[in-house]
Design goal:
The chain is mainly beta. Helix content is 0%, strand content 44%.
Length: 434
Amino acid sequence: MALVLGLAALLGTASRLPAAWAQDELFVTNCGTNSVLVFTRTASGNTAPLRTLQGAATGLSCPHGLAVDQVNNELLVENANSITVYPRTASGNTAPLRTLVPTGLNIGNLFVDPVNNELVVTDFVGPSVAVFTRTASGNTAPLRTLQGAATGLGSPQAVVVDPVNNELLVVNTNSITVYPRTASGNTAPLRTLQGAATGLNSPSALFVDLVNNELVVSNSANPLGLSPVRSSIRVYARTADGNTAPLRVLRSPELVGPLGLAVDTVDNELLVVKNLHATVFGPSSPSCSISIDAAVLVFPRVASGDICPLRTLEGNATGLTNPQFLAVSSPATSLAAAVLPASRSVQVGTPATAFATVINLDTGLATGCSLAPAMSLPATFSYQTTDPTTNALTGSPNTPVDIAPSAAQSFVFALTPTSPIAPTDVPLSFACTN
């Protein structure tokens, strides 16, 4: 009998936590008051922020996109025509550490990639995606630019780097295009998620959930519900391509004109910014405690259908005025990992092999890193490091290795069944000794 394995990567269990992720905080850009508001992650109701970054010295101007760099302990904010960078804990009228003012770019959004030490910026007019060194400032030229008819870019609104699978994902007017991370020039996408079945209609933000191998998209559609299409959150398989329907769709009477979103994989929550003062009911909408204010809505990560939020952050004390995007800094493990291929089928006694990549997101050395099945099954397990460019074996079998800060290590591993096993999803655990 064959062994059919579904291989799932789990976050590692190293105890060392990046400083920027130890605070359990929620960051929200506030265009209406030129500010960044910081709350406890679990804040709800009419709760005041823990701190507010605001004032002439900050250089904030209708701030839109933002990112928390957990490795370098920085907060990056996209403004009307600049990107300003602050210490993560900045508050009050604090001047930025540095400001990037790229010439000729109509900045749509940003993404910081601490693994490759790069800053990625969308130009919604170009249309293009420009990549800078992470510490770029002033009128620094980009390292590379993705632009041209073959790219399929169309008014790009958001961008995400997947450092585990080495991909660049871009949110366009009605599509999501995926490229090699280092793509430049007039490069065609590896895949394009687009078509009637996708339901994509003016998407505004994207979160790549590497733990659950999903793409989570905020879909503004017709935000005031004047057509049959309501705003929604749509979730797809990470590798979805073409005219593929979502795995699940979330709607809510309060989910009107959603912009930024984040998935908290530690607490299994989905957080969404709503900035329109409206509610829209569908034919099966529940009776919620309705908010008509700008708000942050929190749902279960796997929520689907037409439901009420778990909690809502709203009210005058919050200071939310035309909020745009958000970032969550939850206590989390300092490793991220992915596995390819997602499944293998072999006969008893034959190894089922696959590759894994582990990233150390911390600022310190991760020591003694290894991998193992996270469940018991009648099979032997082995692993070994590889050269990521050639997949050639390196090091010694079943030997833990150290991973440098912000670096990745690739592995090959094998599960060899010793007796028949029914088709099984096998979770994998990645752990380091410190």
